[in-house]
Amino acid sequence: MSPPGSDGTAARRLSTTAVVLGLSAAPFLLGPYAIGTLSRILVFALLAISVNLLTGLTGLPTLGQSAYFGVGAYTAAIVATRLTDVGAFQLLIAAGVSALVAAVTGWLAVRARGVVFLMLTLAIGEIVYSAAVNWKSLTNGTDGVSGIPPVVPLPGMPALELDGLVYLYVLTVFLALFAAVSRLGSTPFALALRGIRDNERRMSAIGYPTRRYALAAYCGAGALAGVAGGLWVSVQRFVSPGDAGFEIAALALLAVVIGGSGSLWGACAGAALVWLTRDYLGHLEVVAGRGPLLLGVFFVIAVYALPRGLAGVRLPARLIRRRTA
Fold first, then answer.
1. For residues 93 and 150, what is the distance between their CA atoms, to the nearest angstrom?
2. Can you list the positions of beta strands (E) in the chain?
3. What pLDDT sits at residue 2?
4. What are the residues whose beta carbons fall under 8 Å from the beta carbon of 55, sequence distance 6 or more?
5. Cα distances (angstroms) measured from residue 39 to each of 33, 46, 93, 98, 162
6. What backbone torsions phi and psi does residue 256 show, to the nearest 5 degrees?
7. Angle, nearest 10°, between helix axes 246-259 and 65-82?
8. How many other CB atoms are found less than 10 A from the CB of residue 47?
């Protein structure tokens, strides 16, 4: 007889292995357009994970992660065009600059909660968007930064010219960061963040510096969004103010809500659903360009039919036993 919970654990491991193998085999099975779409979904999923760190783990719903995504994208673009085409350096510098900007702006934001925090993050996003439009000497304004060379993953490696190779580079970074965030979930730091989410007054009463913990989570989420922005530059080889705009922030928060707040897998599944709805289903002739309408319908369904999001959907126990038998 299997120990309690072993069937579910085995099923999760089997599902994880199948997903990783499927993603790894994608460049050998799909065409360039599909591979490019998958690369963008992985980048957007990484941004959704950064939103989930604040919204799901810490209880701070945010509309400002596109700011740090944009900061990371512009930083990586500037590093690529003026300093080096090595992707590792681009991502590290993008993460550092985004975390620094998050520390400066988050010092004020984490003093608020609820709707006030949401509005502050929205304002931060609009400030960064305005800076991207008006700081033309650095960002080239609405024309954006183009002419970005192909990324070189590590010093001494060749530049990645093919879409499939760029995808594998993005996938490698995504899996590494997904694993790191997954391990974070079982640490005392993550438990403290959950305590802040559930009852901040009690956490403060027993001696936890809740604002410091919230600010640390805010900076970590900003750094993760910055890495996503750096990967976005490697895929697109172009960055514009729209990448730091409200639409990206709203879609990332929507992905977390639809996927299931607090779940890493849910955030990724929600990101894939949102991106495919916007860029694929929304352009089908039957829909006639009504992608936002479809997203609204999915959001309503998720709120009423799936209060825990896609992550709350559970397979029947009988089916799990068959899969793990």
1. 17
2. none
3. 46
4. 61, 62, 253, 256, 261
5. 10, 11, 21, 21, 12
6. -65, -40
7. 120
8. 31
Rounded to 10 degrees, the C-alpha dihedral 130/136/140/141 comes to 30
What letter would DSSP give residue 197? Answer: H
Is pTM beyond 0.70? Reply is yes
Locate 288 and state its tokens. Answer: 């006639």
CA dihedral 233→234→238→244, nearest 10 degrees, is -20
Q: Which two tokens stand for residue 157?
A: 């490696």
Query: Which of 68, 58, 121, 69 lies closest to 261 in space, CA to CA?
Result: 58
Contact 230, 68 (CB under 8 A): no
| Per-residue pLDDT tens over the stretch 271-315 | 998 888 877 765 555 555 666 677 677 777 777 777 676 776 665
Alpha carbon of residue 257 to chain centroid? 13
- Separation in Å, CA 269 to CA 17, 46, 143, 306: 16, 11, 32, 14
Hey, what amino acid is at 184?
A: L
Q: What confidence category does residue 11 fall into, taking pLDDT thresholds of 50, 70 and 90?
A: low
**C-alpha torsion angle, residues 142, 146, 151, 156 (rounded to 10):** -130
